[in-house]
UniProtKB/TrEMBL annotation, chain A:
GO terms for molecular function: ATP binding; ATP hydrolysis activity. Residues 2-236 form the ABC transporter domain. PANTHER family: GLYCINE BETAINE UPTAKE SYSTEM ATP-BINDING PROTEIN YEHX, OSMOPROTECTANT IMPORT ATP-BINDING PROTEIN OSMV. Keywords: ATP-binding, Nucleotide-binding, Transport. It comes from the Bacteria. It comes from Halomonas nitroreducens. It holds the Pfam family ABC_tran. The keyword DNA-binding does not apply. Coiled coil: none annotated. This is ABC transporter ATP-binding protein. Belongs to the ABC transporter superfamily. InterPro entries: AAA+_ATPase (IPR003593), ABC_transporter-like_ATP-bd (IPR003439), ABC_transporter-like_CS (IPR017871), CBS_dom_sf (IPR046342), P-loop_NTPase (IPR027417). Transmembrane segments: none annotated.
From TrEMBL, chain B:
GO terms for cellular component: plasma membrane. InterPro entries: ABC_transp_perm/SBD, MetI-like, MetI-like_sf. It is a multi-pass membrane protein. This is ABC transporter permease. The keyword Membrane applies. Residues 62-243 form the ABC transmembrane type-1 domain. Keywords: Membrane, Transmembrane, Transmembrane helix, Transport. Belongs to the binding-protein-dependent transport system permease family. The chain crosses the membrane at residues 61-87, 108-136, 224-243. The lineage of its organism: Bacteria, Pseudomonadati, Pseudomonadota, Gammaproteobacteria, Oceanospirillales. GO terms for biological process: glycine betaine transport; transmembrane transport. It comes from Halomonas nitroreducens.
């Protein structure tokens, strides 16, 4: 879907991105992560030609991006940024309808699409359609930003730290919603962040960048288990890597069926993460938890031994 | 209830137009009724034969004054906004310091000197004063247009480009509307200053409200000077309050 082949970007003498190759499959959620100045934003912006690459080739569905006019290319991709970039003199409705209007959709269809998106992102149409960006909270503004990026139903979504300026609770909610949205809409997403927890939570493919180069890429679990070098290991959380990994695995993956023993008093829901289960054990001084389903009916049990020693069962 | 609301909205709108309307009425009254104040001016200038400027009708002078300022203002807006927009485009960025500097020089150059230099080339009349006013009025417009466009949140510009807006769409739909209040403030300053400055046009034969002032200075008639000054002052206040009204429109 998106292929970067030996891409390099130089600004004058300085090399911002050096010889990177990356393939993002259709429907894949690819997260570029790294410290500031590592070239992740530059890489993202080369994909929609906000920045022109110096060497190498970038392909979208097999076609060179330079085969398109910059504007044409950008209208085919959604784009969301940290500061939202909502137009302060336009209403929410008009902001979301921007790209469809640039693509000259008939007014009626734009209106329907805007309402559809507002509903999808949990923005009540009656309440928000006529509001101006300054009347929105940070989370609401970012929802509008994401809705605007999705407006013309692009296959590709480029996101540059879209949740970076939000408070932790709002950020987590939006991360979950984006993940759910992506699972449903099957968009190909390239997402830039410096927040490793966010990266691990969202990514199908995690790309660690440092000093303009890709240090390692792959599934988050693979990187956590076998970081290529010390830099990747420390960026992934150093000694906390075990907890980060536990945060990616659901309890249901490690639980055993209910045994003949007495049911443990402390409970955990099956779709909680292993990290949450461990936290409950620590907090409650319990070595065994009963796993319950959404109706609070016991369906299995999870022991500390099983939780920590589980890797040998893989 | 509805009627009360509309009535109230009506009076509010009326109140906002109040200041310009009052100044305009005073200006017209002064133009038409200057002769009635002869007694008053006689006190200032007891020895002169005539105390009310009568070589031309005040309304005609007012019209010519407005015409000169209006034409100069339009030219200054076209050139000033045009130049500022051009140097904020990707291709013109290199010229930004140059244009900002040229505009500053235009204002430091005294209009009288511009007149003196322009008359040999353009001859006597209205043309030299228009040139002088355009040069003099450029700076506030250029400076404010630059400030207005440069002051836009970079994220807004990046998003606009990232969404696939062309340069022209970005300018027309985003940059100019967002910079409009600041640009308007620059135009207001420029035009208000030029209403006063235009008076010196009378020295090179551009007949306007500066005529009574120059004539009064030449003939030692303070009453003439006062009449010209009062009318120019009232005109400046009228125009300035009109701009204030325009600017106070709710800006999103």
């Amino acid at each position: 879907m998106i292929d970067l082949i030996h891409v390099t970007k130089r600004f004058g003498e300085e090399t911002a991105v050096e010889d990177i190759s990356l393939s993002v499959a259709r429907g894949e959620f690819c997260v570029l992560v790294g410290t500031s100045g590592c070239g992740k934003s530059t890489t993202l912006r080369m994909i929609n030609r906000l920045i022109e690459h110096s060497e190498g080739e970038i392909h979208i569905e097999g076609q060179q991006i330079r085969a398109f006019r910059g504007e044409t290319l950008r209208r085919r991709m959604g784009y969301a940024i940290q500061s939202t970039g909502l137009f302060p003199h336009w209403t929410v409705e008009r902001n979301i309808g921007l790209v469809p209007r640039l693509l000259k959709w008939p007014a009626e269809r734009v209106r329907e699409r805007v309402e559809e998106l507002m509903t999808l992102l949990g923005l009540a149409v009656d309440e928000f359609a006529g509001k101006y960006p300054r009347q929105l909270s940070g989370g609401q503004a970012q929802r509008v930003g994401v809705a605007r990026a999705l407006a013309a139903d692009p296959d590709i979504l480029l996101m540059d730290e879209p949740f970076g300026a939000l408070d932790p609770i709002t950020r987590e909610t939006l991360q979950e919603e984006l993940r759910a949205l992506q699972a449903r809409l099957q968009k190909t997403i390239v997402f830039v962040t410096h927040d490793m927890d966010e990266a691990l939570r969202l990514a199908d493919r995690l790309v660690v960048m440092h000093q303009g180069r890709i240090r390692q890429q792959g599934h988050p679990l693979a990187l956590l288990r076998e970081p290529a070098d010390d830099f990747v290991a420390s960026l992934l959380g150093g000694e906390d890597r075990g907890l980060k990994e536990a945060a990616l695995l659901p309890v249901s993956e490690r639980m055993l069926p209910l045994g003949p023993r007495l049911v443990a008093r402390e409970r955990v829901v099956q779709h909680a993460t292993l990290r949450e289960a461990l936290s409950i054990m620590l907090w409650r001084h319990a070595e065994r938890l009963t796993v319950v389903d959404d109706e609070d009916i016991p369906i299995g049990e999870l022991s500390l031994r099983r939780l920590v020693g589980a890797r040998s069962h893989d | 209830m509805t009627r009360a609301l509309t009535w109230r909205a009506g009076t509010q709108a009326g109140r906002r137009w109040l200041a310009p309307a009052v100044w305009l009425l005073l200006l017209l009254a002064a133009c038409l009724g200057m002769a009635q104040l002869e007694g008053l001016f006689r006190l200032v200038e007891p020895d002169s034969r005539a105390v009310v400027y009568a070589r031309a009708d005040f309304l005609v002078l007012l019209g010519r004054h407005l015409l000169v300022v209006g034409v100069a203002g339009l030219l200054a807006i076209l050139v000033g906004v045009g130049a500022a927009v051009a140097v904020t485009r990707p291709g013109g960025r290199d010229f930004l310091p140059l244009v900002a500097q040229l505009a500053s020089i235009g204002q430091t150059f005294p209009p009288v000197a511009v007149l003196a230099l322009a008359v040999p080339v353009l001859g006597f009349g209205t043309l030299p004063i228009i040139v002088a006013l355009v040069l003099y009025g450029l700076l506030p417009i250029v400076r404010n247009t630059l400030a207005g466009i440069e002051g836009i949140d970079p994220g807004v510009r990046e998003a606009a480009r990232g969404m696939g807006m062309t340069g022209g769409q970005l300018l027309r739909q985003v940059e100019l509307p967002l910079a409009a209040p600041v640009i308007l403030a620059g135009i207001r300053t420029s035009v208000t200053i030029n209403i006063a400055t235009a008076a010196i046009g009378a020295t090179v034969g551009a007949s306007n409200l500066g005529d009574p002032i120059i004539s009064g200075i030449v003939n030692g008639n303070t009453a003439y000077v006062l009449q010209g000054a009062v009318l120019i002052g009232l005109l400046a206040l009228t125009v300035d309050s009109l701009f204030a009204r325009l600017q106070s429109r709710p800006v999103r």
